Amino acid sequence: MTDVLRVGVAGLGTVGASVVRLLQRQAEALTARTGRRIFVAAVSARDAAKERGVDLSGAAFVDDPAALAASSDIDLFVELVGGAEGAALASVESALRSGKSVVTANKALLAAHGATLAALAEEKHVALAFEASVAGGIPIVKTLREGLAGNSIERVYGVLNGTCNYILSRMELEQLSFDQCLKEAQRLGYAEADPTFDIGGFDTAHKLSILTSLAFGTRIAPEAVDVEGIERVTLADIDAAAELGFRIKLLGVAQRTAQGIEQRVHPTMVRKTTAIAQVMGVTNAVTIDADAVHELTLVGPGAGGDATASAVVADIADIAKGIRSAPFGLPSASLRKLERTPVQRHEGGYYIRLSVPDVPGAFAAIATRMAERRISLESIMQHGRGGVSRRTGEGPVGVILITHATTEQLVREALDAIYADGTIAEQAQVIRIERE
Ligand code: NAP
Ligand code: HSE
Questions:
Q1: Which of ligand 1's atoms lies nearest the C-alpha of 106?
Q2: Which ligand has the shortest distance to the CA of 191?
Q3: Active site (catalytic) residues
Q4: Are residues 150 and 203 in the same domain?
Q5: How many distinct structural domains can be found in the chain?
Q6: How far apart are CA 49 and CA 88, in angstroms?
Q7: What ranges make up the beta strands (E) of 168-281?
Q8: Does 272 share its domain with 361?
Q9: CA 250 to centroid of ligand 2, rounded, Å
Q10: pLDDT band at 391 (very low <50, low <70, confident <90, very high)
Q11: Positive or negative CA dihedral for 296, 297, 302, 308?
């Protein structure tokens, strides 16, 4: 190991520019902590002429990220381009093949190719580090991989997407529209280049699949995540949740079951009294249920340049010190195949919002279909915009059911029967309630 570490950074957008800035700002402290002088020797982006508000005068500009990754002028490659394929994949493969360690914040890449990239890194005896890929500035990867090594984990869940949490929080607190909130999240640099990854739940699914692998020692399996986004969540649901003592969060949940592992991403009702319900704005939180620590929650900024750069720089510092962990906590060959428990087997409480015609017997018919499947109701609320137990006037009436614990399959069967009866005017809104 020499006393300098020459870093190549591909991608100089929200995260890349912040990483270069942070490495410069913390240069002395990082040298003191790692024993090496860490400096950015070369960079890559699409537009060499773009002003990025950061001093790049000492760094060579290389047009092609894969060429930068293979260059003998750098010791470590940092991928901050984004995307599961294209320049990101080509450059990470190029760096690993040329025997260089890689740091990336790219969860889409890891979800799609994490297993093969980890195997390649092991074969080449280099590091593949991705602390920034999950929950921004929260050191959750290190926590699961090292800090909780003595635990058997039952469940890991949390708010893993800053953009969605920002949108849901502002909709609730300021009664703003979904589109207004999304535009603001994009302006602040939280959203993905294609924000459907955020609001559709896919970004959370990518992150969850990384956490699952680390928590349960299974091969990363993004295709085994059941995913729903926040597009169908309305202000009516957010208001109703508040009146019932809940908040709506987009959660990613990975849970050990008798059959295997359940991985699901969906809008979720969480009781307002829980720690996860207090997490507002771009903040993320991850809770781990494990045998020795019982419950551990980490909370912090989940997106944005500085917070993400903090995690990238932590990985760079580890590599500078010569630390090389198995990317997913175990040697690739020891990771087990994930046995999927589909969401149809999920057990829990449900929020169901129905639009019910204001005619005698309509509600009784719904209650009958629930009772036939032994779905027991914790509460029933008639809900119109503006308050509980208020009617919106003529036409259908909003009715909200909160069920006690039941199974997804029974809820879906009951709703199918209700649709077949023609009792309700439109598709029901169904939101799962996460147990504490
Ligand atoms: P971004 O602002 O869109 O920046 C992307 C950068 O990559 C830009 O500098 C762009 O160059 C460069 N680039 C794109 N295609 C390229 C190509 N073919 N060749 C060379 N350079 C190319 O994205 P970001 O928000 O920084 O995100 C970067 C990565 O971090 C993504 O994987 C993202 O998922 C992840 N991440 C982001 C956050 C966040 O809060 N933003 C948090 C955690 C993780 P130009 O500038 O010249 O166009
Ligand atoms: N778009 C992501 C989010 C960035 O909003 O959480 C952080 O991974």
A1: 32
A2: 2
A3: 207
A4: yes
A5: 3
A6: 21
A7: 226-227, 246-256, 261-271
A8: no
A9: 13
A10: very low
A11: negative
Q: Which ligand is nearest to the CA of 304?
A: 1
Which ligand ends up closest to the CA of 204? 2
Tokens describing residue 134: 């999950």
Quick: pLDDT tens for 199-224.
999 999 999 999 999 999 999 999 99
Task: Tell me the per-residue pLDDT of 349-371, one tens digit each, with 9 for 90 and over.
Answer: 999 999 988 888 888 899 999 99
Q: Which domain holds residue 87?
A: 4-133
Q: What are phi and psi of 280, to 5 degrees?
A: -120, 165
Q: How far is the CA of 162 from the centre of ligand 2 (A)?
A: 5
Contact between 306 and 296 (Cβ < 8 Å) = no
| 210 token code pair | 């990384």
Of all protein residues, the one whose alpha carbon is nearest to atom 7 of ligand 2 is: 303
Residue 78 lies inside a defined structural domain of this protein: yes
Q: Is residue 124 domain-shared with residue 150, that is, in the same domain? A: no
Residues 193 and 266 in one domain: yes
Query: Residue 185 CA to chain centroid, in angstroms?
Result: 15
- Which tokens hold the place of 197? 């990854």
For atom 21 of ligand 1, the residue with the nearest CA is 45
Take residue 271 and report the two structure tokens written for it. Answer: 């009781």
The helices-and-strands tally (H runs, E runs) of the chain is 14, 18
Name beta bridge partners: 76. Answer: 7, 101
- Regarding whether 52 and 78 lie in a shared domain, the answer is yes
Instruction: Tell me the C-alpha distance between 287 and 289, whole Å.
Output: 7
Pocket lining for ligand 1, CB < 6 angstroms: 10-16, 44-47, 50, 65, 80-82, 87, 105-106, 132, 136, 189-190, 192-193, 303-304, 308
Structure tokens at 397: 């009436």
Best residue for ligand 2 mutational test, from 163, 168, 249 (most atoms within 8 Å of Cβ): 163
On whether both 355 and 276 belong to a single domain, the answer is no
CA gap 86, 109 in Å, rounded: 10
Q: Do 169 and 272 lie in a common domain?
A: yes
Four-residue CA torsion sign, 151, 157, 163, 166: negative
Q: Which residue has the tokens 């090594």?
A: 149
Supply the residue whose CA is at minimum distance from atom 16 of ligand 1.
46
User: Which amino acid does the sequence have at 162?
Assistant: G
pLDDT digits (tens, 9 = 90+) for 412-433: 999 999 999 988 878 999 999 9
Read off the pLDDT of each residue in 251-257 and give the average, rounded to a whole number: 97
